Amino acid sequence: MPLDLNTYLGVEPDALKVYSQRAEVLAANLANADTPGYQARDIDFRAALAAAGSSGGTLQPVITSAQDVTAVGSSSASPPGSTTGGVSTEQFLKYRIPLAPALDGNTVDSQMEESQFAQNTVRFQATLTFLNNRFSELTTAITGGQ
Amino acid sequence: MALFNVFNIAGSGMSAESVRLNTVASNLANADSVSSSADTAYKARYPVFQAIQASLMSPGGVADPTKGADAAVQVNGIVQSTAPGTARYEPGNPLADTNGYVYSSNVNVVEQMADMISASRSYQNNVEVLETSKQLMLDTLKLGS
User: Which of the residues A47, B18, B89, B112 has an alpha carbon 20 to 30 A from that of A72?
Assistant: First the structure.
């Protein structure tokens, strides 16, 4: 049985990319916490990951044998807006709704950005752990548990 | 990899906040400076922060502020406060004018202290972001080991 590494790793590599892009957006928010007129942004994670999955093919059914039922639309092109090969999250950038707008037009809430950054970090590390487990499984399969 | 951009963004934040700390230090050091005229008296200095996006600076880049996640910060310039300073009657002061007045700076020390703490906290935020991103990248490098 040939093993497609992309299929085997599932959605995790795409999630890792989106997490790292989200870290970039949150870092930009924190760096501009004192910039007048700066509006805080965040990534629509669900939409970004869905687009990443459809472009990478990891969320689509894969036909492994001729007896498989052909899923309708499974081989269709990726939806408009998503890029093939890489993850582009720019179209999923959304502006935050400020809880307490400042006089200078800045909408960064440092405390909330920090908590979101911490949450993003933990999820990034969780994804890394899942990936590590996948590689451990492969190693076990290759070495036969020796 | 997007995590590399975090280093640039947090670094720009750190350098902007350190400029802000510099102006605070300059203002606090000159809080008690006096001068012989209102025009030459020390004026409090403030940095002007501005968000910059690398995608906007590259030639042919998309000129849309909603695009690009790479919003670093830069110091656009230093402005001087236009608040009026105070004139004190000190005829014994060698800097006093013909009427015996010296003109002190318009620095508000309490405001400067609050500004210093704000700049310091923002700097720490950026250091924390940098440290966390570094750890994530190191963890990614160790993937599969």
Answer: A47
Strands B45-53 and B34-35: unpaired
Dist. CA A73–CA A103, nearest whole Å: 51
Pull the structure tokens for residue A30.
Answer: 């924190």
**What's the confidence (pLDDT) of residue B144?**
79
State the complex-level ipTM.
Answer: 0.74
Helix (H) or strand (E) holding B18: helix B2-29
Structure confidence at residue A85 as a pLDDT band (50, 70, 90) = very low
Contact B69 A21 (CB under 8 A): yes
Cβ–Cβ < 8 Å for B130, B12: no
